[in-house]
Design goal:
Elements (H helix, E strand, L loop, with lengths): L1 H31 L5 H23 L3 H7 L9 H21 L5 H18 L12 H32 L5 H46 L11 H8 L2 H15 L3 H10 L5 H20 L6 H13 L9 H32 L1
Helix pairs in contact: 1-2, 1-4, 1-7, 1-9, 1-10, 1-12, 2-7, 2-9, 3-7, 4-5, 4-13, 5-7, 5-13, 6-11, 6-12, 7-8, 7-9, 7-11, 11-12
Amino acid sequence: MILLGVIIVLALIFDFINGFHDAANSIATIVATKVLTPFQAVLWAAFFNFLAYFISRYWIGEFKIGNTIAKTVSEDFITLEVILAGLIAAITWNLLTWKLGIPSSSSHTLIGGFMGAALAHAFTVPGADLSTVVNYAKVIPIMLFIFMAPLIGMVVAYFLTIIILNICRKVNPSKADKWFKRLQLVSSALFSLGHGANDAQKVMGIIGAAVIFYHTNIEIDVNYTTAADPFKYFVSHWGWVPLTSFAMIALGTMSGGWKIVKTMGTKITKVTSLEGVAAETAGAITLYTAEHFGIPVSTTHTITGSIIGVGITKRVSAVRWGVTISLLWAWVLTIPVSAVIAALIYYVISIFG
């Protein structure tokens, strides 16, 4: 029970770190266009991060992404030590990329850490079939969306910007700018709702996997072992976990993450209020679509693609492709690097465990 408690605490710490690591995703453009001050922006984003809980719980009625995360690894290779190693690896990579100002994916570092630790565990199990460790039906769509999410965000943002420009071509520029500054409050709120719903559920999935393992193996609840859907059982009997997960990501968002704000808001391309509305709306559409299908995606990748989309409406050279290529390398490396770190941590835990 103590180890389960440690995992829950670490998962919520990761959730908090995820909040300040990804705060830039929902506030970078609104700060860059001076619609809100940085302090006002984080309060705005944090409020809608938390509000996403009530939408997911009472409107959508389920936590599809959390369920997906809990099932990315075969239950035969899930142990509390595996989950612990994956969490430590994810926290390590998140803090490192935050320190360097690299907007990497908290989602993918968590998934990579979970898979890496599970594979390390499988190597220690005699006769284990390594090909069955990872649930590829869940993982392959996640891997594809490393590239699909920014691409969808880019395309949607591009066409949104073109449509808006054509609609507003005869409007007085100063009047239009005033209206788009107000609309940015709406678009950033929509994106923050998507961010909260998408990212808080990933931590729920990890905690859910730990609770499911604990109940199944300790068998403190006879009815649990016959539950048709263990994740639904987890949500209904551990109802404080979803609420706490959304609260922690909101608190993390309030703490900032200013280095990444600078990268997202200024280094990729210069963003106007009109373009901020298009980028945030495109990002929100992408997140809601992915959530509908239960696919955990990176809010970082999504908004980066959307910002690129509005940038290329001016000209291709308006996007600083050198910065973008550096971000792409960080995205590609996140899962394998997190997996390796988690595997090493798992072996250390095994030695001292």
